[in-house]
Amino acid sequence: MIKIPKGTKDVLPSNSAKWHLVEENIKKLAKKYALNEIRTPIFEHTELFLRGVGDTTDIVNKEMYTFLDKADRSITLKPEGTACVARSFIENGLDSAGVMPVKMYYETPVFRYENPQSGRLREHHQFGVEIYGSASAYTDAEVISIAKDMLESMQVANVKLYINSIGCADCRKKYNEALRTYLANSLDSMCPQCKERFDKNPLRILDCKEDKCKLVTKSAPRILDYLCGDCKDHFDKLKHTLDLMNILYTVKADIVRGLDYYTGTVFEFVAEDVGLTVCGGGRYNGLLEQIGGKPTPAVGFGMGIERLLQVANADLIDSATPNVPTIYFAPMQEYYDKAISLTAMLREAGISADTDHIGRSLKAQMKYAGKLGVRFVGILGEDELKQDAVSIKDMQIGETQLVKIADLINYIEKKVN
After folding, report:
1. What was the pLDDT predicted at 256?
2. 3-class DSSP state for residue 47?
């Protein structure tokens, strides 16, 4: 038997309604915050991620699905969404219309070759928001507000917002010098990857998950103490704006995020009850220039949908039920043609309807309709059709009523409404 690849998962028909619930909430948020959807391919030229995401990140070093196509071009399955949106923004001249900021969202599969984690598979799905063209701290706060709104719509319990600033290139140059000085005497006790990061990008060491490295960095200098005047001012304005919006936050100086393109504001939402980060984001003002575009301020976030479903309110998730017909026509087999006609008639009127597909007996059809959870069963037998009518059984209350076919649509609509 051919089985599903490790780190992937089927979304079965019985569970797809839970995904639809998330997607419906995303669409409501998009309307509320005037976000428009962008869709990018699931694979890109590998260079995009090398230049955009950064060659000191775990994603680029360990986790990308990269292969040569038939023309020997290096292609990579999308490991995250932001670099792809940035490429599309540049390539399609989305700034040329002069309407800034450009506010976008996406829902996309992403692919990372790593050991499957809780709510994080090798193929998982992200909801992301990107706002290009505004350097304002208010825009940072708006992006945080969107993420908070989404988590609240899914009734995620005990979520905390952590914020930090990792400054601009000038701030980080000074900070990296201080960090290297602090780490130099402990380098031998750190993991091989952090030893490599020491020269290339010591800030990445703060994001290492190895216990021995976390022990070393526990008392490391804080980047907040090395912010330049502009970056400090931006961070102070962000905190002030979050206060105005009544959004609670905690400053956490060791948040650096896992991607090299971040500058300035970084943030995470953590579901404290289970200890899972359910959303992360921040500013990446240098990303577009880094991959060939004009300098453009940008801010956004990514939120894993599988992890969101994992931490969402269980009662809310369970309330998302599969699609079932409003009415199921159960005919005696000699009246099957009539059931097909009535099913088509109700569908044309916008009412969800179905009928038997495999030649069950009337008794078996009634049992099947009960398992589906339909509201009404329309029984078609000789007595009903002699009167040009259908016996409608309301499965909620167990009552049956003879309804003329000419009145059937009105009857169902009134009952449902």
Report:
1. 80
2. helix
